[in-house]
Amino acid sequence: MQKKRPLVKPMMIVTSTGYYVSVLGPYFSDNKNNDAKIIIHALSNNAETMKSWLNEDDVMIVDRGFRDSLNFLNELGIKTEMPKFLKKGEKQHDVEDSNSSRLTTKIRWIVESANGRMKQWKYLANVVPNSQIPNIGEDLRLVCAISNKYLKPLCSSNETDELLGCKLLYLSKQNNYLMERVKHQELDKQQKLNGNQSMLQIIQL
Hints:
Elements: E1 8-14, E2 20-28, H1 35-44, E3 59-61, H2 70-75, E4 79-81, H3 95-118, H4 122-125, H5 133-150, H6 159-172, H7 177-184, H8 195-204
């Protein structure tokens, strides 16, 4: 339930270019049908023979709602990438987890854009009457097919993208020397300093 309205939800599978591969469902929008349970059910039953779509080096980009399905996906040999969770007792991610999450988010934006493209259709952007629920799955699949055929890809790969990807991977493995110095000198634990001390530390950094 959301805003006192019963909802159904589909699960869309898209490529890194925004191409709609499949629309699963719709499913009842309740705690029995979260993202993890839906993908586990779909792969366990090989819905639409989806296992045949996957190649050895493919990577599935998911959000945190799929966290309970990661072990299942890995057992099937499917590589996954998901934004990191904060570790217990931490207030912010360390450098490695922050960079890893940024790399995932840099790719995953395409999923949100693909979802947003569907809402450009007035029919899908508004509340659908209950009488149309039996057809909503086919309607959504039809809209996705039209988008694949006639709309430009949300993202297209080129040489610049490959160079940017290499740069991001390189930078993600670099040490954060500023953070190391702050920790080493315990600058984050010091009390309020006078103006001269603060200015001196800024110059040294």
